[in-house]
Amino acid sequence: MRTRILALVAAVAACAGTALVVVPIAHADSPPFDTDWAICSDASDTNCIVSATANGVDTVPTQNNTVRDYPWVKQIDANLIDFGVWHDLGNGSTTNVVDPSVEYQLVVRTGTFVPREMNAVARDGSYSISRSVTTGYTFTVTFKPTPTHRTDAISCSYDGGCGGSTTAATDDLTGFATGDVQTLTTSGLSPAEISQRYGMATFTNAQNSYVFYNNDFDLLEVRLANPHLEADGVTPVTDGSYDAFLPDAFLIGTMNVPDPASVTKYSFTVTRTASGSTTVAPMSVVHEPGGVRIKLRNISFSRPKYSIKPHKMVPGKPRMAGVKKIVGGAKASFSAPVANGGAKIDFYRLACKKSGGSWHFKNGTKSPITMTGLPYGTVYCQIRAHNSVGYGPYGGLWKSHT
What we know:
Elements: E1 3-10, E2 18-19, E3 48-54, E4 57-58, E5 68-77, E6 80-88, E7 93-95, E8 104-111, E9 117-121, E10 123-132, E11 136-144, E12 146-147, E13 175-176, E14 178-182, H1 191-196, E15 201-204, E16 208-214, E17 219-225, E18 242-247, H2 248-253, E19 268-274, E20 277-280, E21 284-288, E22 291-296, E23 305-310, E24 319-326, E25 329-335, E26 347-353, E27 360-364, E28 369-372, E29 380-386, E30 398-399
GO biological process, one term: carbohydrate metabolic process
Keywords: Signal
Organism: Nocardioides marmorisolisilvae
């Protein structure tokens, strides 16, 4: 089975009360790995934090022995940058239990590090990337801490197992936030697949999550561990959440969706497998600039698996390479659509005409398609693809050349 791992979000195993040595950080363009990044000191700095706000107010992202919450950013290795929120206890120690009502925004300049994909244990978030020829890449992430199990409670992972419905979160409804951005360079994905994930983002309150694209079955598979909350002696609440922003390039190139702008929740079949049974599950689809956000809610099982499969659709537009005029006809060269709609293309239809004249048609199974019986002189041609669902839209109109 050809299965690709898209992302892995793991709970941070930092316990409440962990001692933290306060060391002043002198800003440098390339801080050592696993060292908190400082606020950028001037407009040309890289590998630094442009701004950090809490509910829109500037906040300093460092411990200063004052009782407060503060965000942090650090680079772990050449392909991974982590971020999150700590609570300063004011006595040289910190905890990761923070106020869940505060909205944080981090604007981070990463230089040559390409922050393609973002994954976070957080909620109500957004993620965007920009690039400058002078300072390289910058990512902006906005989020609120999410209710989650205490990290010093039972360990929980999808493959390793986790507690069932009897596992209690004694600090339910407290806040916790951590995340990462990845270059995906070492992900095993092809360069084309990596480029399609530029800007992809996930927000969830699961302790552990995996996201795969299963090429054999053409579906997105989401595996979550412990995405629900429960207090001692209280019936579990179904407030597990999973939000993912899927870029248009990913929908087209990986999921074979020809027209992302047209998709709705009815464009997909979503099933949930948990406790040995599979049922149809609800999912919402919200269009945002550059892609769609999908949302899963009411996730009450400890280790559910969601399968998100697009319905078969008509194919996208073929990509015309050129139309050459020949004696008595024309020869059109083209490439297959980037997205075939999830069904094999069985033939193409070429349509050509002289300006102001009638259309002539010719079917073919591959490029080029040669059409005869055309009027003398310049003609204009377009082409569309057909699969088991029907005809896709015509591509652009091309003028013949000799």
